[in-house]
Amino acid sequence: MSITVASVSANFTRDLEQNYALIAQLLEQARAEGARLVAFPEAALGGYLPALGNHGDSVRTTRRSLPPALRLDGPEIARVQELAGDTVLTIGFCELAEDGETRYNAAVCLDDSQIYSSYRKVHQPLGENMSYAAGDGYQAFDTPVGRLGMQICYDKAFPEAARMLALDGAEIVISMSAWPAARTATAENLQDDRWTYRFNQFDIARALDNQVFWIASNQSGTFGSLRYVGNAKVVDPGGNVLATTLLGDGLAIAEVDVEGKFREMRGGMFHLRDRRPDVYAPVVESGTSRADGWREVAHA
C-alpha cells in the first residue's frame, strides 16, 4: 500500500505565533496533495541558534539568544497536535527537561490522538553543546503510517546512527535539520555550496546504506548569522531522490510504497542481512582511535 509523504523547507523564527501559522499553512498544502506524513525541520518551534562556533561573537551570541524551552507535555506541543489532526508529523523544538534547567535539541512525532515518540539530538556540531545537552540513544517506533525513526541534522553524518534505526526496524527515517551553508568561501549560488553538497550526499548515502526511505526536512532563508540551504527531499531505498525543494521554500512530496520497494530492493542484496558484525568491533570501541592522530600529523 502506498502513502504520500511530504518534507518541509521553510524559515522558522522565535515568533511562535508565526510558527503556528506557517505549520497550519504547510499542513493544509500537504493534505491537499494527500500527504499522511509531514516532516517539519529542526527547531521549527522557536527557531534555531543564531550562530554556531567556538570563537568570539558566536559564543556570546549563542548564550544570549536561545530559543524558548518547551516541555514535551506543555501547551505548545498540544497546540501542534491540534493543528496536526489525523496527519502524522514530526517537528523539532528546544525541549526543557524534567529538572527545569537542562535543554535538549529535540524532536517529536505526533498527531492529534497521541505522541508516538520523542528524540533528543545525539551528535552536536560546532559548539552546540554550549546551548544543549546531548541525547543518548536511537529508537524506532510504530505509527499509523509505518515504523519510523528520527534524527536531527548532524546525526546524518554518522552511519551508525541511521544503522541503529534500520536495525530497529525503521522503514522511514526522518532527518530534521537547520543545516546552513559553509561559513567561509560560501558559494554565490547556495545550491553549489560545499555544505549543500554534503547535506544532499548524506541523505542519499544513508537511504542507500540501509535500504530505507529517507525524508530530509530543513530550514530555509536566514536566521542570525546562518544561511540555510533548504533542499528538503524524499529519497527511496535505492538512493533515488523522488522529490526535492532545492533552495526554495515549500514541500517535497512523493508517493511511497514501502512494502513493494523493500521487496524489490531487499530481495537480492539485503545490506542489513549481509552485515558482518563479527569484524566491526573497532567501530563501537570507546576511546581514542587512530584517526584522532590527524591533528598531530597536520601540525607536525
Automatic annotation (TrEMBL):
<feature type="domain" description="CN hydrolase">
    <location>
        <begin position="3"/>
        <end position="258"/>
    </location>
</feature>
<dbReference type="InterPro" id="IPR003010">
    <property type="entry name" value="C-N_Hydrolase"/>
</dbReference>
<dbReference type="InterPro" id="IPR050345">
    <property type="entry name" value="Aliph_Amidase/BUP"/>
</dbReference>
<dbReference type="Pfam" id="PF00795">
    <property type="entry name" value="CN_hydrolase"/>
</dbReference>
<protein>
    <submittedName>
        <fullName>Carbon-nitrogen hydrolase family protein</fullName>
    </submittedName>
</protein>
<dbReference type="InterPro" id="IPR036526">
    <property type="entry name" value="C-N_Hydrolase_sf"/>
</dbReference>
<dbReference type="GO" id="GO:0016787">
    <property type="term" value="F:hydrolase activity"/>
</dbReference>
<keyword id="KW-0378">Hydrolase</keyword>
